Amino acid sequence: MFGGTGLYIDSLIYEIEYPNIEFDEEYRKSLEKQVETEGLKKLYEKAKEIDPQAVEKISENDKKRILRILEIYHATGKNKTEQEIESRKKEIEYDYKVYALNWDREILYQRINQRVDIMIQRGLIQEVEKILEKYNEFPTAMQGLGYKEVVQYLQGKLTKEEMIEKIKLETRRYAKRQMTWFRKNKQTIWLNGQDDIQNNIKIILEGIN
Q1: Rounded CA separation 166/158 (Å)
Q2: Closest residue by Cα to residue 72 from 23, 116, 34, 26
Q3: Cα–Cα distance between 60 and 173 in angstroms, integer?
Q4: Does residue 111 surpass a pLDDT of 90?
Q5: pLDDT tens digit string along 76-93?
Q6: Do 50 and 22 share a domain, yes or no?
Q7: Domain check: are 19 and 108 in the same one?
Q8: Residue 93 domain-assigned (yes or no)
Q9: How many Å apart are CA 132 and CA 87, to the nearest integer?
Q10: Pair (107, 202) in one structural domain
Q11: For helices 80-88 and 6-14, what crossing angle results, to 10°?
């Protein structure tokens, strides 16, 4: 499985383009205020009304993407899904194949948990501390998986143990959403993640030759 989301792959295949959206700081502040006063759930429901297809792919706790759906619609009058459909009308210019690794869920989750432990050992907390020292406000990257949980720990909202477990949980959920996305795409060719790497390379080479 590649890093990032399936949208990156779609953007490459279909050459999906989004208009340059002018950032409306006042609107963003109003959304942030609504989160504080009314909770994220209400904005999640509003986003679902605007773009139900996009909301299907995200968690109801994914503040960044929920606000993004609302901001896109506010700025353009069209939702994200409508813009993707318009882009997909273009004829695909080249042949392509999409390969994905299929892992036994228990093994996948063990690998995720181990990866998070290694990230902590290699200085994730210290990295976030340095970023917080450099910026007065959290940059967009700090809202990403792993970073925002460390920020909560540094703010005293989570213990270290709670932070680690939350990163593991959210990463497992993210991996599950990725698997679901790729399974919905019929063009995906699945490889056995537990198989010998050379055998998988052979399958890919045979497929593209």
Answers
A1: 9
A2: 23
A3: 12
A4: yes
A5: 888 988 877 776 666 777
A6: yes
A7: no
A8: no
A9: 38
A10: yes
A11: 40
Of the three residues 66, 88, 110, the one that is the final residue of a domain is 88
Q: Binning pLDDT at 50, 70 and 90, where does residue 49 land?
A: very high
Average pLDDT in the chain = 86
Is residue 53 a part of any domain in this protein?
A: yes
Measure the CA–CA gap between 110 and 96, rounded to whole angstroms.
Answer: 32
Query: Dihedral angle at the C-alpha atoms of 122, 140, 31, 125, nearest 10 degrees?
Result: 20
Contacts of 64 (CB under 8 A, 6+ apart): 140, 143
User: Bridge-partner residues for 188, per DSSP?
Assistant: 98
User: Which among 33, 58, 88 is the end of a domain?
Assistant: 88
The residue segments making up the domain with residue 78 are: 6-88
Range with lowest mean pLDDT among 101-105, 117-121, 139-143, 155-159: 139-143
Q: Does 163 share its domain with 203?
A: yes
**Mean pLDDT on 7-17:** 72
Alpha-carbon gap, residue 98 to 100, rounded angstroms: 7
Digit-coded pLDDT (tens) for 25-42: 899 899 999 999 999 999
- CA dihedral (188, 170, 106, 114) in degrees, to 10, reads 110
